[in-house]
Amino acid sequence: MRPSGRKTDEMRPIVIETGVTRHAEGSCLIKCGDTQVLCTASLDERVPPFLKNTGLGWVTAEYGMLPRATHTRMNREAKRGQSGRTQEIQRLIGRALRAGVDRVALGERQIVIDCDVIQADGGTRCASITGGWVALRLAVNKLMKAGDVISDPITDHVAAVSCGIYGGQPVVDLDYPEDSEAGTDSNFVMTGSGRLIEIQASAEGATFGRDDLDTLMNLAEGGIAELVAAQKAAVGG
């Protein structure tokens, strides 16, 4: 039995609220159970130096957790310096979202996705990717409406979900009690059409077999389908 009472293939409730900030070109608050992440997309007409005069656009991300997003207060990273975990997560978010973007169609501009964890209960990087895509979609919609972008640069939905082996059972969408005790922990990043972008999987307590990985993959596909449906409902298709 999972601590939450969910079935092995049951996702936490997914809620995506859009337009939650006044100034960002795109924004949403994504709630996956008790995990809540504020995602904003900001347009920057400048690109990193290595892309200057290439005609290619760029999508990048920054990630952070508020001091009381967790059970005990953390010092702000602005005070103590950015951790390796934070750097790894924001690079993952950027890679994931770029996989669903035609950078030629985007043009020589940059969109920065900020993901701020308000409350953490497992799966914050996955929620950031899923919500980050919604913020990106809304920002691109504004560019297209203004005529700054002619062809839609977003090629597909991008979403992510965690899976793991908890208590000997493969499960989808781990909350914190499961994540902290899982024998195997994994994150799957996929497109709406079912293509893989990235898989992160590690044996936390015990090794796992190919059959276990296949089972986790099947669970992830079902979870991604639910997340993409929530994205479509949030952005209107």
From TrEMBL:
InterPro entries: ExoRNase_PH_dom1, ExoRNase_PH_dom2, ExoRNase_PH_dom2_sf, PNPase/RNase_PH_dom_sf, Ribosomal_Su5_D2-typ_SF, RNase_PH, RNase_PH_bac-type, RNase_PH_CS. Coiled coil: none annotated. The keyword Transferase applies. Phosphate binds at residues 85, 123-125. It holds the Pfam family RNase_PH. It catalyses: tRNA(n+1) + phosphate = tRNA(n) + a ribonucleoside 5'-diphosphate. Keywords: Nucleotidyltransferase, RNA-binding, rRNA processing, Transferase, tRNA processing, tRNA-binding. GO terms for molecular function: 3'-5'-RNA exonuclease activity; tRNA binding; tRNA nucleotidyltransferase activity. The keyword Cytoplasm does not apply. CDD domains: RNase_PH_bact. It comes from the Bacteria. Residues 10-139, 158-221 form the Exoribonuclease phosphorolytic domain. GO terms for biological process: rRNA 3'-end processing; rRNA catabolic process; tRNA processing. Gene3D superfamilies: GHMP Kinase, N-terminal domain. Its EC number is 2.7.7.56. It is an enzyme of class 2 (transferase). Phosphorolytic 3'-5' exoribonuclease that plays an important role in tRNA 3'-end maturation. Removes nucleotide residues following the 3'-CCA terminus of tRNAs; can also add nucleotides to the ends of RNA molecules by using nucleoside diphosphates as substrates, but this may not be physiologically important. Probably plays a role in initiation of 16S rRNA degradation (leading to ribosome degradation) during starvation. Belongs to the RNase PH family. PANTHER family: EXOSOME COMPLEX COMPONENT, EXOSOME COMPLEX COMPONENT RRP41. Homohexameric ring arranged as a trimer of dimers. NCBIfam families: RNasePH. This is Ribonuclease PH. It comes from Tropicimonas sediminicola. The gene is rph.
